[in-house]
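Teaching assistant's notes for section 4

Start the section by putting this record on the projector. Ask students to predict, before seeing the second block, whether Oxidoreductase will look compact or extended. Collect guesses on the board.
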Amino acid sequence: MSVNDITRRLGESLILREDPPMRVFVTGASGWIGSATVDDLLDAGHDVTGLAGSDTSAARLEAKGVTVLRGDLDDLDSIRKGADAAEGVIHLANKHDWANPAASAAAERSAVETIGEALSGSDRAFVFASGVAGLVQGRPATEDDASPHIGPDSMRGGAENRAFDFVDHGVKAVAARFAPTVHGTGDHGFISYIVAAARKTGVSGYVGDGTNRWAAVHVRDAARLVRLGLERAPAGARLHAVAEIGVDTKAIAEAIGTGLDLPVVSIDPDHAISHFGFIGRFFGMEGATSSDKTRALLGWEPTGPTLLEDIKAGAYFEV
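Reveal the predicted structure now:
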């Protein structure tokens, strides 16, 4: 039997397998990816407790049938309480404070350490959000690439490597590495900032020659991957939530320009930040990423629309 046959049969067996319901604690449960993940977990029969920092978030979760635990990313006691009571934890919360990235990194590291300590010795699953940005240069990133971000002063507080420290302490830690854009109607992430820059400047821009690529995934596909990672991924797995290995940033700008009826222009890399704002640091980066090993491991196949299809359908143009 060939390796391809073994891989295909593994994927098929995973797809057909019935997984028992779990008590799952989710941070960031009312966020963009978190909301979709909670919906997917509930559809799969899991019992979900969600961390909620506001009355609005709590009400939204309760309406879905989620048990609410009040607290936020700085409330480590609540995070520990949620992890203690769960059979599996999904950590998606992040401050995303681009004006103070050090504060975001510190909070992320503290939350990961708190959850890891709570789950130590239990062999319970701990799926945490990470990213593919900056993994490698010169080729598409793969699941074999370890995160280069180490230590509390690095990107995201080095949380991916810190979380994997707990594998040796009986925690089934799994990294869910998201594409730079997790798209769909209602997305307020990176593409929305690029659209906002186009509205503000009157042109739809791309950096340099626009041949650098951004990996992408639809939010529903990303949510399903998180749930499959919780149910089935082994400790130490790096999962790539990537449906498209890379979309040319010039093609992204052209789709936005068509949608807003604006001219499409190249922006000098030296002026990227002044034109786009903070997102200019990233829009000119090469971000092509493979998810081949994730698909083979979990039998995951994205089914949602592509990034350009979402842009052309108007997902980012309602004010």
